[in-house]
Structure formats: C-alpha cells, structure tokens
Amino acid sequence: MADETATISDNTTEPTEQATTPAATPTPAPAPASAPKPHAPSPAAFAKKAVKRPAPAASASGYSDAEVKAAEAFGRVDDNGTVYVREGDSEREVGQFPDVSKEEALSLYARRYLDLKAKLDLLASRLHSDTVKSHEIDETLKSLEQETDKPAAIGDMAALKQQFEQLKEAGAAKKAELTKARKAAIAKAIEERTKIVEKAEVLASSLDDETNWRSTADKFRSLFDQWQQHQRTSVHIDKPQADALWKRFSAARTTFNQARRKWSQARDVERAHAKAEKEAIIAEANQLKDSTAWGETSRRFNELMDRWKRAGRVGRSDDDALWARFRKAADEFFNARQADRDQISTSEKENLAKKEELLKKAEALVPVADEAAAKKARQALGVIQDEWDQIGYVPRDDMRRIEGRLDAVDKQIKAVEDAAWKKTDPEADARKSSFEEQLTAQLAELDEKIAAESDPKKKAKLEAEKATKEQWLNAIK
Q: Which of 77, 374, 425, 430 could join 416 via S-S bond, C-beta 3.0 to 4.6 A?
C-alpha cells in the first residue's frame, strides 16, 4: 500500500461564522412616477437621508399637482412668510420662507409632506419583501418616528400618524414572522451541521486494523469542506450551539489523527524490521548464487522466497529496490542451473543414442541354443555392459525402457546357463522331468492366450514370455 502520511489539520476552534445577508445600502429617493423606477432603497437609508439646509429649497418634482394641492389644503402662509399646518382644530408653525411667494412656500412644505409619506409607503412595501431584516425594521421605524413627530411640512398629519401606527403594527408582525422563520432556519442549519458531525463520529468510531487510512483521511477532508461550505452559505448559528457542534467534529478528527499517527508509528517499526530481514535475505542469496549444488541450493532459494513473503512490506519504492536486488541474485543462480540442465539434456540425449546402438548389439546375441553359445554370448554381453556403464546418464523418461531391454538379454542368456548347470547337478535329473512337464504345460497355455489376445502390446509380451520358456525347454532337453 502506498505511503499514507498526510494529516488533516486539527483546528481547535471552529471556523468563524459569517453573516450571509449584506446590510441594506442607502439608495437615492424615489424617481418621478413617469420615469423608470430604480431599485428601491431600504427604508432605514431612506429615513436617515434627511436634508438639512440653512434655508428651505425647492424639492425635486415627482408628485402630481393633485397630490400637492391636497397637502397644501392643510397649511397657510401669513404675510410675514411664516408657514403653518393645521392639525385638528389647531395650527402649528412649521417654518418661515419670506423671500418667495405664498404659493411657492406652500408647495415646498407640501412636497416635504409628500416626501415623508413616500418614506412610509416605502417601508410598507419593504415589509412585504423576503429580504427585509428585523434590525432594518427597527431602525427605519425609529427614524420615521422622529420625522413624523411635528415634521416641518404641511399635509394631513393625522393620516400620516395613523399610517405610521399601522406600520408599527405591521412591523411587529413582520418581525415575529422573521423570528419564526429564523428559528426554523437555525433548526435546519443545526440539523444539517449535526449530520456532518455524526458522519465524522461514525468514521472515528469505526477505526480498526483494517482501516484504509488514506481513504478515511479523504472522507474527513471532504466533511471539513462540507462544514466550511455550510458555514458560508447557511444561516448564522448561535455561538454556543456552533461551538458545541465544532467541539464534537474536532474531537472526531482528533481521534482519527491520533489513531493514524499510532498506526503510522507501528507501521514504521514493522517496515524497519521488514527491511532488515530482507537485507539479510539478500545477503544470503548473494552467498548462494554461485553454488553448483543445484538441488540443495534450489531448496534454499525457495526457503528464502518464503521468508521474503513473511517479512512484510517496506514501502513501494524501497520494496521495489530490495526485490530487484534479491531477484538479481536468484536469477544468476537459476540461469546458471538452467544452462547446466540444457547441457546435461544434450549430453543425455547423446548417451541415449549410444546406448540404443549397444542395445542392437546386445539383442543380436540372443537367442542362444546351447551352453557354448550362452558362454560366448555372456562374454560379448560383458563387454557391452562395461561400455554401457562408461557412457553415463540418459534422459530419465527413457532410463527404465532401455535398462529393461538390456536386462531381457541378460535373462535369456542366464536361462540357458542355468539350464546347463542343472544338467550337471546330481539332483537336477530328479527334477528335470517335472520341470519339463511344467514348461510344456505353460507353453500350451501361452499358445491359447496368444491366440485369444487382440491387444498388440499384450500379445507381444506373451510371445516374448513364450520365447523365453522355449529356450528354457530347449536348454533342459
């Protein structure tokens, strides 16, 4: 197995939670109704964009004449340029604009009223948005509360304040809805992150001697990537809960890292031992490689191979280098043994051809008819046997065949010799008649078997046996 020493960084603290929703960015005031409307600014930004001038200035045109006239109906301007707004049965001074006509002064403060109402309308619209935030609602309402308290504008102040109160109620309802949604989102985020933690804990609890450390490290790395991705894209989890989950995840990674370090240390010890053992095997192989004791050395090389397999792994690169050294020594010996075998095989084939020529001479000596012929044949066979022994080995598969043929010649000659000896034996005459009868009966039985036998090989064997017994019979007559 490839070396697996890469470690997973074991951070002791959870990566920083990041807010996923950007703060509202202030945008310009609403454009005139006739022009295309840009993206609406947040109410908070709109509310905070209060224009403070040392002297009133005309507001940008964006309202209809009817809207302006309706607002102007709630105000008046005296001869000194002082502007008043009617609130119920009383009036309230809202400013002074002496350098312009009364119509211009009324129009200015009426448009201020319409600007303020536009802010309330914008907040009402934002409360229907999915992106509005609770803090944005609070900030906008706070700003609008200040602006709607005795504003320097003329218009239906009662309606404005009523609209503001309605917005406060709608804002409270929206905040409750957002709170509920956030709690659900947080619960879902906690559930999702808990699943990541549980997967890490399952991995940590399943570690054993069969663990694939590289694969498990990759799985932990993937889980950590999932954690970071979830942290970037999901709702912000409260710190105590996030810290508790991170502590569990970190503990699982620590368990894995400690177990892998322990395994790695044990593996290093085993590899060092295996390397020392293989170095010793290589040294023995180098001592044996030049031996010509083919059988014994082959056995010892097989034993070295068994020891090599039991020695264990050293590491891919070291194992390959060590194996190349051992294989080199083994190949030198076995190549030399094979060359010797090839040479022996050639010599044995040559010896076989020589012995087959001698067999032709030996088999030409038989059959022998009498004692004199047997004696002469024995002398010739002795010369052949001496030459036979000097020739040397033949291929193992042919040894029994040619030795058997030579023995058959010897037996035929010996049979005649034994028969001649028995003729001179005083006790032989007493047994001669009985033996002759047995041979005659056996020859008759062999004739029947030969006649009935259809297998050529078996028939040839029976005929050879018959020829031998006929020689014996001739020898004792």
A: 374
Placement of tokens 């490290």 in the chain: 217
Q: What span, in angstroms and rounded, lies between the C-alpha atoms of 116 and 51?
A: 12
DSSP class of 209 = T
Lookup: tokens for 4 = 């697996």
Report H helices in 234-315: 239-288, 294-311
What local confidence, expressed as pLDDT, does residue 151 receive?
A: 93
What lies within 8 Å, CB to CB, of 367 at 6+ separation is 412, 467, 471
| CA–CA separation, 167 and 32 (whole Å) | 24
- pLDDT at position 9: 52
Please state, in angstroms and rounded to a whole number, the distance separating the CA atoms of residues 393 and 347: 8
Nearest to 213 by CA among 261, 252, 254: 261
Q: Is 88 left (phi over 0), alpha (psi -120 to 50) or beta?
A: left
Q: What is the DSSP letter of 366?
A: -
Domain ranges, ordered by start, for the chain? 24-237, 268-343, 364-476
Q: Which residues have C-beta within 8 Å of that of residue 144, sequence separation ≥ 6?
A: 43, 47, 119, 120, 123, 164, 167
Local structure of residue 54 (DSSP, 8 states)? S
Residues of the chain with pLDDT under 70: 1-61, 423-433, 476-477
**What pLDDT is attached to residue 93?**
93
- What is the pTM (predicted TM-score) of this model? 0.48
Alpha helices, DSSP H, located in 57-156: 65-72, 102-126, 134-147
Residues contacting residue 468 through CB under 8 Å, at least 6 positions apart:
411, 412, 415
- Residue 92's H or E segment, with its range, is strand 90-96
Contact indicator for 67, 114 with CB cutoff of 8 Å = yes
Rounded Cα–Cα distance for residues 448 and 444 (Å): 7
Token pair 């448009």 is found at: 111
Cα dihedral 426→427→429→431 (10° resolution)? -170
Q: Compute the 3-state secondary structure of the chain and give helix, strand, coil in percent, each to the nearest 5.
A: 70, 5, 25
> What pLDDT is attached to residue 24?
36
Tokens 């005139």 map to which residue? 32
N- to C-terminal Cα separation, the chain: 86
3-state secondary structure of 84: strand
